[in-house]
């Protein structure tokens, strides 16, 4: 990857030998590895069996999970928050594991619409919840820095599974708690 970054820097007309850029290709390669580390992890690995018996049948919500991802169309960041809710059926997942599931998918080249669905489906599959709801709100640098250059725009996406989709009162409770 380092050699490709060197080529890109040369292609834009910069001198790869100048002091400020001399180590940039290696740093950029390391940064890209970090930003896309989701490819090296699986949901099963990050959950690591952190499922616990529970009699709870009420909605559980984890709000404001920071996420950083890269738009697969322009390879520019999008930054935002995920809100994840589920209704357990006999077991709950460790709190930090929800944030780790978000990161598994966010730290890949991605579109927000698919990211939202992947998180919801993964949580559903891991804990067999009665329902799962995921809302993501993010700002996309591909829209802010280039193209239409709209600085204050943001995107919201949702994925509702199980009772979050089929029961309007469950969906409405979740949406009300997000306000």
Main beta-sheet annotation: 5 strands, mixed
Number of domains: 2
The computed structural class is: alpha+beta
| Largest sheet strand order | 5-2-3-6-7
Tell me the CATH architecture of the largest domain.
2-Layer Sandwich
**CATH homologous superfamily of the largest domain - what is it?**
GTP cyclohydrolase I, C-terminal domain/NADPH-dependent 7-cyano-7-deazaguanine reductase, N-terminal domain
Number of helices: 8
Q: What is the ordering of alpha helices and beta strands?
A: HHHEEEEHEHEHEHH
Which residues sit in consecutive blocks of at least 5 with pLDDT less than 50?
A: none
Mean pLDDT equals 97
In words, what does this structure look like?
- The chain has 179 residues and is of the alpha+beta class.
- The chain has two domains: 2-35, no CATH class; 49-178, GTP Cyclohydrolase I, domain 2 (2-Layer Sandwich).
- It has helices spanning 2-11, 24-35, 43-47, 95-106, 112-127, 141-144, 163-166, 168-178, and strands at residues 51-53, 60-71, 77-87, 91-93, 109-110, 131-140, 155-162.
- The strands form two sheets. A five-stranded mixed sheet has the order 5-2-3-6-7, with helices on both faces. A two-stranded antiparallel sheet has the order 1-4.
- The longest helix is centred in the last third of the chain and has 16 residues, at 112-127.
- The model has no long low-confidence stretch (mean pLDDT 97).
